[in-house]
Specification:
mainly beta, Pectate Lyase C-like, 28 strands, globular
């Protein structure tokens, strides 16, 4: 069980004396929420009206257990936000909505949560689009650099997680969907995660548009699972021609089709997409049956896709260390 953080607003100096953090509280029991307070009834209100931290500080929003029927927008002018679920598990703090593309007027109007502020973090939270098997319905859209998700759940069916821009790190988390349920053009590493297929379809639809882009998805030290009846699962298909996805030291179920990868109906994509595996295990590991245009990674190539290398960037960001600072 987590030790509760201080549930009052405070300016906290770091050990170096350079950063000041602000902690605020969200709870269904709160009935007011105005400028200058430290407790809010909704998460969006806390995002919009929190006290501002000092230079280099971050805003930690401590969310009491509950189901929050909200659509959140963390804008670019709200960087360094942490959503911290205060329950015993991520299921106890759920942010949910149920828009699908038909009702909303397009896929990119459906997201329950949109994250555009850099340095975003979430720990012990569930992000859900409850529209079900009704077409495109995004649970969360992440277009933020240096984003970290730890002990989180992402629930949906088609297009659950739009990991689209910046460097993103997902660790010890659960991601569920049926069709293209991790998609977009971020540089993202999924580390010790569970990717769960709740129907037949494609686990990933990465959308790199040029071989010069340092983007792609790396699924490492993870496992793929499936509902009964989800008997035809593809590791990925190219939403854009230079799509890049690798699976490293990941357990695959028998539900994964022997070919592994799909060209999205275009043979031309076979010459540009970059798909590969290293150290796959489980009944879905069938290297001899994989499509001829997929790559069998070497040990050196596999190292390059680890989070501390693939996500380092010119600022030498260490996502593993960032995640370790979360509870």
């Amino acid at each position: 069980m987590r030790t509760p953080l201080l549930l009052f607003a405070a300016l906290i100096f770091s050990a170096t004396g350079r950063a000041q953090d602000v902690h605020v509280r969200v709870s269904p029991e709160v009935t007011t929420g105005i400028h200058g307070t430290n407790a809010f009834p909704t998460i969006q209100m806390a995002i919009d009206h929190h006290p501002w931290p000092g230079p280099g500080g971050r805003v930690v929003i401590e969310i009491a257990p509950g189901v929050y029927h909200e659509r959140l927008n963390i804008t670019q002018n709200h960087p360094e936000i942490t959503l911290l679920g205060m329950g015993k598990s991520p299921a106890e703090v759920t942010i949910t909505n149920s828009l699908n593309a038909k009702d909303a007027g397009g896929t990119f109007f459906t997201e329950t949560v949109e994250v555009d502020g850099e340095g975003f973090e979430a720990d012990n939270v569930t992000f859900e689009n409850a529209a079900g098997n009704t077409g495109q319905a995004v649970a969360i859209a992440v277009r933020a650099d240096r984003a970290v998700f730890k002990h989180c759940r992402f629930l949906g069916h088609q297009d659950t997680l739009f990991a689209d821009w910046g460097r993103q790190y997902y660790v010890d988390s659960y991601i569920e969907g049926g069709v293209d349920f991790i998609f977009g053009n971020a540089a993202a590493v999924f580390d010790h995660d569970e990717l769960h297929a709740n129907g037949p379809g494609y686990l990933t639809a990465q959308s790199r548009t040029s071989p010069a882009e340092a983007t792609g998805y790396a699924i490492v030290n993870s496992r793929v699972t499936a509902d009964p009846g989800a008997s035809k699962i593809w590791l990925g298909r190219p939403w854009r021609p230079y799509s890049r996805v690798v699976y490293i030291d990941t357990e695959l179920p028998a539900d994964v089709v022997p070919e592994g990868w799909n060209n999205w109906g275009s043979a031309a994509n076979e010459h540009t997409a970059w798909y590969g595996e290293y150290g796959s295990s489980g009944p879905g590991n069938r290297p001899l049956a994989r499509v001829s245009w997929a790559h069998k990674l070497t040990a050196d190539q596999a190292v390059w896709f680890r989070p501390d290398t693939f996500l380092a960037g010119s600022d030498h960001w260490d996502p593993v260390a960032a995640a370790a600072k979360l509870p």
